[in-house]
From TrEMBL, chains A, B:
It comes from Marinobacterium alkalitolerans. NCBIfam families: PRK05463.1. Keywords: Lyase. This is Putative hydro-lyase H9C73_01425. The keyword Lyase applies. Belongs to the D-glutamate cyclase family.
């Protein structure tokens, strides 16, 4: 497959040719977190995203229950087949991990696509900044915090953040760059003291891998797309489907189109 | 005088009716740092400002040597009379402080007007952020650093910074707001550890007054308009004139016009 062509990547995933994660694929194009919910839970989740745009930035929503297409993200896109790996939840617990959800599809399912940090990491790299988790070849470290999301209906929970260590001058530049991309988590939510947002041990992330923090660097924290998954687990809808971490929906939307100035 | 009308304020200063500093006057309008140099030093200084836009952001330059007007800053403006207090330097040393420079004016003098932090402080306050030096009713603390300015001809020196303590989330918002105003120092240059930029004692500023830093706050450092005065002292042009600290040139330029987006 052509690793820089989003349609070719989706075709390879759809046919079972590509089963791995999507990190590094389709550079320049938006990859999305996925949340699929029954329609009687969808209005609450839409409001939750609206109220919490930093952890839950919507880049696409299916127009109607049962739709498995989101035209704005790719004309040929099929939500049921175009993600390499899905997680299936019942009452907030992951009960299965599958490569295709055609057999699980229902006419009442509403699909939400949320922006992901790959887009802003690309913008930071393009500006010459170092991303430690990329340098060290590991997953970005992610932490549960005590920053409460704004509740919406049956959905509530605390924010999950990702962390990238930087020198202060680089952090200032990163804040400027990320502010241009509110649809992919936007500016950081915190820097410096981890305890100030309820993180007890920076070397023991709740998700992903630890990275080294060098002399003169401070940890910089971004709202993270894992937040909605944690909120879904806590809020226990009877049924929902998400992507598996790192196995994202590759879209036709250029990252540059998300820039607000 | 009408304290919100820049022309009225300049008239009051010109007539000797207002002799004090200009802090809090003409809210919404740009106030400028002033540097006046003989023409054979002007090209070097212009280049210095061009190379160091954060400490030396030009908001106006007189079109020709000897001009005491800068139309873009105010049609009636007279550089020789419209600043409440001037400092006169010979060979880098302050030899006099005067309220009028008509008697000192020369046909070879070139006037530079540089943006000042009053403009971005106003934008921060308008967004609901606290400015500690304003809350505590003192001058902003300023420090010499080891951040070298880029040299230009006979001009060189280290950057002076101003400091405002903030919680990290407020600092992130301040970085966003100040990034919109590159003509008045723009985004901060550093936050956190003072020693990283050569500041030994945060409680003993080199200029201005100390302010309290509360639990959970970090010092945030902006490039400061005192930098060119320190550079002028070090570079020792035979003659130059600046405003006295806090006694700025009040212009007709709305702060909002400096916003780049």
């Amino acid at each position: 497959m052509d690793a820089n062509n989003p349609q070719a990547i989706r075709r390879a995933i759809r046919s079972g040719q590509h089963k791995g994660n999507t990190s590094g694929l389709a550079r320049g194009f938006v990859q999305a977190n996925l949340a699929i919910l029954p329609s009687d839970w969808a209005a609450d989740f839409l409001l939750f995203c609206q109220l919490n745009p930093k952890p839950c930035p919507l880049v696409g929503v299916a127009s109607n229950p049962g739709d498995f297409q989101i035209d704005s993200l790719g004309a040929d896109l099929d939500i049921r087949t175009d993600v390499p790996r899905y997680r299936v939840f019942e009452n907030g617990e992951c009960v299965n991990e599958v490569e295709d959800i055609q057999a699980l599809w229902r006419d009442d399912l509403v699909t939400f696509a949320l922006g992901c940090s790959f887009s802003f990491e690309e913008a930071l790299l393009a500006d010459g900044l170092e991303i430690r988790n990329i340098t060290e070849g590991v997953n970005v470290p992610m932490y549960r915090t005590n920053i409460a999301c704004k509740p919406a209906g049956r959905f509530s929970g605390d924010m999950v953040v990702s962390m990238r260590p930087m020198k202060p001058a680089d952090a200032i530049r990163a804040i400027q760059i990320c502010s241009r991309f509110p649809s992919v988590h936007g500016a950081p939510v915190h820097f410096g003291d981890p305890a100030a947002i309820g993180i007890q041990n920076i070397d023991a992330p709740d998700f992903g891998d630890a990275v080294s923090i060098r002399d003169g660097e401070v940890p910089v924290f971004w709202a993270c797309g894992v937040t909605p998954q944690v909120v879904l687990e806590q809020s226990r809808p009877p049924f929902c489907i998400t992507h598996s971490p790192g196995h994202m929906l590759v879209t036709d939307l250029p990252n540059s189109k998300l820039s607000v100035f």
